[in-house]
Amino acid sequence: MNRVWVLVGQRARRDWRQLAVWIVGTAALAYLSFTGVAESFGTAQERQALIATALANPVILLFRGLPSGTGQSELMVFLILPWLAMLAAFMSSFLAVRHTRAEEEPGRAELVSATPAGRTAPIVATIVHGVLANAILAALVAGAFLLTGSDIEGSVLVGIATGSVGVAFLGVGLFAAQLIRTSRGANALSVWTLLVSFVICGIGNAVGTPSDDLTRMQSSWLTWLSPFGWAENTRAFDENAWWPAGLCLALGFVLAGVSVALTTARDLGGSFVAERGGRVTAPATLSTPTGLVWRLTRGSIAGWAVGGLLVGMLSTTLAGVVEEIGADNPAIEQILAQISGSGDLQQATITTFYTMLGILAACCAVQIVCRARQEESHGTAEVVLAAVVGRVRWLAGYLTVALVGLVAVIVAGAAGSLLGLASQGGDDQLARTVLITGAGQVAAASVFLALTALAFVLAPRLTIALGWTLVILGMVLGMFGPIFGFPEWLTQLSPMASAPVVQGDDVDLQGLGWLILAVGVGVGASLVLMRRRELTAGG
User: Fold this and answer.
1) How many helices and strands in the chain, by DSSP H and E?
2) Can you say whether the dihedral through the CA atoms of 341, 342, 345, 347 is positive or negative?
3) At 235, phi and psi to the nearest 5?
4) Alpha helices (H) along 266-343
5) Phi, psi dihedrals of residue 116, rounded to the nearest 5°
């Protein structure tokens, strides 16, 4: 056991900076969000109107939590708990893969296993490390709610619900690391499991049953298929049900136990999902650096495009759910009449979904640019640059494929939306909204591509951290800024919030010109500066 604690200490020394960013950032989001909501929805009437609007529009429930009352603390849990849990899940799954599969790839795990620590001590240390990180996260989130004046039991439950989702996805990351041969593949499997779980929970909330007084939502059975749904059904500050959080902890520990058993049953460096054999001869497309980048990233582009297709289909087909809920509840029908106007509700629904679609496209582009940094740090970029390939051409290949990838995600989303409209008989006005909003999100997502490329050239060791941090900030400002009462100028800093939108028959171009300028300057500067930058293999 002493060897396990030695390894835990090693992991803590290695991770403390990035874990501090994850944990403190999540707790700060909880506290600052509460302050913003208190200013925007300070009265009971304002809070009740917001909850009633959410119950009338299932799109809101897809990206928020489970309404459980109109008190200030209950409203805060509804708005922020799913996102606190998502941050904990990302932190935990990345931690699990980083200290397991990512250690096996370069052979460092083999050196540790050759010591008296053996095969199981490293993964057990990773489990202990991850659980401790989530315990600290839970304590700080609970403390953030306590600082706002919320009651003790509900605050502690919010913290535990957040941390328990993190433990669940710690188990998911450990299990994925046993199945997949590469850390990149294990991370991809973990992230897609997380996103699918989040969407399932959101759909389960959206198709649930609202109460007659429009203050609560009874989620459907779909919500119980997701750890996010378990966390939300704790209903902190309302019912204060502790047992759903226990389901998250149980899932995490079961998967962790299975992962320990699988570690002893496979060869070090091996996996349970075999890698696909390569071709005997290379295709002609691999004769160019751009073709090589496409070959390395086409699988992830396809995955993001599938996600975009699903988001696009939901953006138009969910309108039928809105109408059904309104027909079943006259009070909701009245609210829909107030907020929809002449088709504005459907346009707002598409805009909300396409903000999420733009984030998916940005994630696809950032991942591809970050792949360039990974190739550089692993030394494989040197092999390509040793041939007749200049630095600018090499980077341009990644930027070109990243642009193709983000456009593919948006096009897939638009195709899904048009399919949804076709299944409902078609609507030319909404089809126009889909195409214009989608084109605007191409420009918005391209800003993140340009900024990540600049980070890669100017601060290569910070490329991955800066790229993903910018995406998260853009998401928070674009999706939460208006609700949290952020100043309009701050909200408009998010490219997603500055993209063109359709309002009735008019098109508001908003900051399209600035978006195009930012993309042009960012991409151009990164290519020019790349001419003189030396390769940076470490970090």
Assistant:
1) 22, 4
2) negative
3) 50, 60
4) 289-317, 319-328, 330-340
5) -60, -10
Residue 386 phi/psi, 5° resolution? -70, -20
Strands 501-503 vs 209-210: parallel, antiparallel or unpaired: unpaired
Question: pLDDT of 234-291, one tens digit each?
Answer: 998 888 999 999 999 999 999 999 999 998 888 777 777 777 666 677 777 777 888 8
Residue 296 has pLDDT above 50, yes or no: yes
Predicted pLDDT of residue 178? 92
What span, in angstroms and rounded, lies between the C-alpha atoms of 53 and 59? 10
Token pair 């109460």: residue:
211
Predicted pLDDT at 313: 85
pLDDT digit string, tens, across residues 37-94? 777 676 777 777 777 777 766 666 777 788 888 788 888 888 889 889 999 999 999 9
The rounded distance, in Å, linking the Cα atoms of 316 and 360 is 18
**Which residue did the predictor score with more confidence, 62 or 519?**
519
Provide the pLDDT for residue 164: 96
- 414 — alpha (psi -120 to 50), left (phi > 0) or beta? alpha
H or E element in which residue 502 lies? strand 501-503
Structure tokens at 210: 């609202």
| CA-based end-to-end distance of the chain | 31
Confidence of residue 103 (pLDDT cuts 50, 70, 90): confident
Question: Which residues does 36 contact at the CB level (< 8 Å), separation at least 6?
Answer: 483, 484, 485, 486
Distance CA 173, CA 38 (A): 36
Look up residue 524 and give its amino acid: G
